[in-house]
Amino acid sequence: MALENTQIQNKLTETFNNDVFNFHEERDIFTLEASADKITALILFLKNDSELQFHFLTDLCGIHYPDNESERQFAVVYHLHNWFENKRIRIKVYLNGEKPEIKTISNIFLSSNWMERETYDFYGINFVGHPQLKRILNMDEMVSFPMRKEFPMEDSGRTDKDDRFFGRTVSNC
């Protein structure tokens, strides 16, 4: 029997109640939102449940929404894959903009180690409990996080690039 979206939703709401919500299909991927404090339990459940079997972490990344209210300025997005049923799922967790942090899942999926480090390096999202959370691509001396929307795309003296085309506003400071 094929794994259906309703089956996934029912199992998750039965187990996690209101900590999982906003279920919908987006571009052929079943998507949901989850509470940040339940992410490790949710990922562990999706991996270990005998019917769901989401054994593969395809991707983990960050997003910055500077125009959102403070409690939803950052998001961590997890993409999991069930190879037995060829079913994919996306989990989006919103974080506080003042102190973006979430528990690590590197103890559940070892492959998330580098993904979490990269997300930290570019967005400044702290993965609590990560075994070695430090910059992975940028210099250790950097104090900013270059994928945040407030980070300028180019040298301010350049006239051939316009930050507005990349979803960033230019301040007149």
> How far is it from the N-terminal to the C-terminal residue, by CA?
60 Å
> What is the CATH superfamily of the domain at 5-111?
NADH:ubiquinone oxidoreductase Nqo5 subunit
How large is the count of helical segments? 3
CATH topology-level fold name of the domain at 5-111: Beta Polymerase, domain 2
Percentage of residues in helical conformation: 10-25%
What is the overall pLDDT average? 89
As a whole number of angstroms, the C-alpha radius of gyration is: 18 Å
Secondary-structure-derived class: alpha/beta
What is the CATH domain class of the domain at 5-111? Alpha Beta
Coarse morphology:
globular
CATH architecture assignment name of the domain at 5-111? 2-Layer Sandwich
- Name the poorly predicted regions: none
Order of helices and strands: HEEHEEEEHE
What's the arrangement of strands in the largest beta sheet?
A: 1-2-5-4-3
Strand content: 25-35%
List the defining traits of the structure above:
single chain; 173 residues; alpha/beta; Beta Polymerase, domain 2; 20% helix; membrane; NADH_quin_OxRdtase_su_C/D-like; NADH dehydrogenase (ubiquinone) activity; translocase; NADH_DH_suC
